[in-house]
Amino acid sequence: MGSIRNGGTDADGISPFVRKANMDDLSRIAEIQVFNYRLYFYPIFKSDEYYFDELGVPSLMREYESALDSLYVYDDGAVKGFIKIEGTYIARLFVEPVLQNASIGSQLLEYAIREHGADHLWALEKNTRAIRFYERHGFAATGEKKPEEGTDEYLVLLKRSSSPGKQALQSANAYVP
Q: How many alpha carbons fall within 13 Å on the CB side of residue 22?
């Protein structure tokens, strides 16, 4: 489908590929998160026990089974990314690593903003690529930080203004961890 590479949005700017997740999506959602965690967070935290013993597809599937109401996937025939929205809070946003920079994350984020009024999230302070991605969508660091539980790392709070500028609407080729 050629429209995916070109943004793939309808007249309202909403991706026709974003839909509510269902039970059949859980293994793919969990797999995407595991790949992202190992690729982007393992180098920071370096915990073999967590990333190779505790973190696994079956345990994440069980965790997400009770959260189906808050999960949305990008599905153009295959689930390639997902977002977890809790009220106006973005709890998770991941795209299959080999498919990043193809506007999938941007379409998921714009869906959350337009359809759910999503306006805040916490990001790992060292995850500067993710922070830049959110900044391109109108989010800004508030200066508020909190420790990442059980680590020496910090999370930073990002909030979106109610009237995003033109830059916030640019979503092509964004990187999503």
A: 3
